[in-house]
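Researcher: Before we compare anything, I want clean individual predictions. No alignment, no superposition, just each chain on its own. First chain goes here; please echo the sequence and then give the structure tokens.
Model: Echoing the first chain and its structure:
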Amino acid sequence: MDLQNHHHNSLTIGMCLSEEQVIKTVMTRPKIGRGNRITGLITELYKVERHWQVTAILVLYGLPRLFTGSILAHEMMHAWLRLNGYTCLEPDVEEGICQVMAHMWLESETMAGSISSSSSSSSSSSKRRAKSEFEKKLGAYHKLLIEKNPSRVYGAGFRAAMAVVNRYGLRRTLEHIKRAEALP
């Protein structure tokens, strides 16, 4: 994820590292000449298998919780795409859907009111505290940065992907992207 500034330079604040392994199975067979005579052996490509492995997700240290969380949501979406075979996407499609995930995460984290578990567990992970006005405003600001980003890849990509997700839902959008390698 790059953060665009007013001078159109970018600062990398998060990164998903992945590795592609291409396994080629090669078949050797005889070459048949005139009169069905074997004239030699030829080697031809028989099958190609591709496997992706996510090796790391990196995030710039020291950022506020909401900003860090949105970056992680974005980078984890890159990882999910790689691990699920979405490997030939145009940058605006891939970054756009990753920005949608960051935006959705921010939305879920900054919803008004308190969300708490109905269970009697005292575990801190089972309860969420009420959001302060500051945290709600900070979350709204980070969502606005995503929404108004002037970049063709991150900003326009997000706006196009979000429009499709709002219309068809996330699951159907991802299914279409998998088949068409593009947004509907």
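Researcher: Okay. Second chain, same rules.
Model: Second chain and its structure:
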Amino acid sequence: MVALRGRDATAFLSRPDAGRPIILLYGPDAGLVRERADALIASALDDPKDPFALVRLDGDELAAEPSRLVDEALAIPMFGGRRAIRVRAGSRSFVAGVEALAASPPKECRIVIEAGDIKPDNALRKACEKAPSAVAIGCYPDAEADLAKLIDDELRASNLQIGRDARAVLMTLLGGDRQASRNEVRKLTLYAHGQGEITLDDVMACVSDASDLKLDVIVDAAFSGKPQIVESEFAKAMVAGTYPGQIILAAQRHAAFLHKTSLTVEGGTPAATALDSGFPRLHFSRKAAAETALRNLSPARLAQVIEQLAVAALDTRRQATLGAAIAQRTLLSIAVSARRRS
């Protein structure tokens, strides 16, 4: 079985195996699927500008005649050179064409298939994981290390630095969709062009939430004991297409910040002072909610919340179809708990 994630996926994408010309890209991060497909297609062609070198196929149309995939892949190009086929999977199955092609794979043509967040028992995914000439690569929302690398790569290309507090806030505004995150960082580098270092003010003035939603509203409502707001704002997030795991990740970051701050407060520092001097710097609009959370949640209770969120993060990955329910239930539980003082 060949299903790649993490470092294995990165290694394959940097040097694709010629013996596996059929590549399935799938997962909830549509931007990452597109970005990886773009890179795989570009590296498969001798001349990206040659209109005859790349064939685009729609999966639903291909389902009516799956053998067309084989015909296109084995076609001899008029002017020679390597070719590529880009297939956008839909709701209808064309797995018969993939299985036939996998049995007799082409040598000078790469087939890149883009799919959504398909389940492990999906016929297309199973076929690509099983075939020796194919590979399936999961595309999931960026973890902190991935976001840090994305930021570093874009800043290096623009010859810019970024302050620690600005980086910390920027990290919380990215994620959920790789292309949206990259576009936000590029917009920021353009905004800060010529000034050497990006500041927190630059981030706050320029960058919007790349998940199309300010997750702070949900997170702050949970930790300040407002389950009604959690419920309503979470519903909006789901309608907007936000990945549930991204909301849990934002909650994990805030829980860690609150736990560290609560230990300082327990040592005798006033909550307002601890919040102002903490790192990453908390945006002023969140200060009141954070003070409420610190009053109602002790360090011991916050440690339990951190553990609770870790379990939820794992469960949302293991049970993707139940991810929204798991995330909402966890956040509502935290909100109810925060209403009762420790």
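Researcher: What stands out in the second chain?
Model: Residues 244-266 form the longest helix (23 residues). Additionally, The CA atoms of residues 151 and 185 lie 7 Å apart.
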